[in-house]
Write a structure and sequence with these properties.
239 residues, Rossmann fold, 11 helices, 2 domains, alpha/beta, 8 strands, 46% helix
């Protein structure tokens, strides 16, 4: 891969974070950033259906729903979600992700009664879950892009992410989502922000409105297709 990158006339990556990671191999002037797109016809607030989730997955609708979606690996830090669940027993935490040898996840969630773990969920149910959740949390150490963050934004679900990697590019803190610094007390920061957001309906509505606008305008495939054409023309003209 490194050999191919060095010989390339141009490289297209999905985030400024990835560009920064590889620019020493080819030079920044040959790297072009085009974000991934989201299907807003598939991921949107109209997919909200709490009754369906309650019936199929036995979710307690009397509590706020906090959702995490991602492979259960160290980089994604699902253990933070588990600790948040232990500190917030008045909320239901839904974790969607496959087991991985890196973490003994079943042991982590032992003795918790407000976590619903689902290894694999159909895409249509993921769209329903995101549109029905009160908050989406992704505490990853880093992401090359973070597709699920954009899907949550398009679904009308407020997002809280770690302020690192490509996630820093996707979210404007306090405008269309929230970012938490990687500090010693970050679990407490996540917990406080979750509770503050649930209490502030006006702020929540503002975040949702701005996030929906960003998803529809910045991550729609028509716009991204034009970017691809422009970049490919630029690369071809330099050969």
């Amino acid at each position: 891969m490194i050999f191919s990158i060095k010989r390339a006339s141009g490289v297209i990556v999905v985030s400024e974070y990835v560009k920064h990671t590889i620019k020493h191999l080819i030079g920044g002037d040959k790297i072009f950033v085009i974000h991934n797109g989201v299907d807003t016809g598939f991921f949107n607030p109209s997919k909200r259906n709490l009754e369906y989730l309650e019936k199929k997955y036995k979710i307690d609708l009397s509590k706020p729903l906090i959702t995490f979606i991602g492979e259960l690996i160290r980089r994604k830090r699902p253990e933070i979600i588990v600790e948040l669940a232990r500190r917030n027993k008045d909320k239901t935490f839904i974790i969607i992700g496959r087991l991985n040898r890196q973490l003994n996840f079943k042991r982590l969630i032992k003795d918790t009664n407000n976590i619903i773990w689902i290894s694999i969920m159909k895409r249509k149910d993921v769209a329903c879950l995101l549109a029905s959740s009160d908050i989406f949390v992704l505490p990853s150490l880093y992401e090359g892009f973070g597709m699920v963050v954009v899907e949550a934004m398009a679904s009308g679900c407020p997002v809280i992410v770690t302020d690192h990697g490509a996630m820093s590019e996707l979210v404007i803190d306090g405008v269309d989502g929230f970012k938490i610094k990687r500090v010693p007390n970050e679990i407490e920061a996540f917990s406080e922000l979750i509770n503050d957001l649930l209490k502030n309906e006006e702020l929540k509505k503002k975040i949702i409105t701005n996030a929906l606008k960003k998803a529809q305008e910045n991550f729609n495939w028509e716009r991204l297709t034009l970017q691809w054409k422009k970049v490919l023309n630029t690369i071809n003209s330099t050969k």
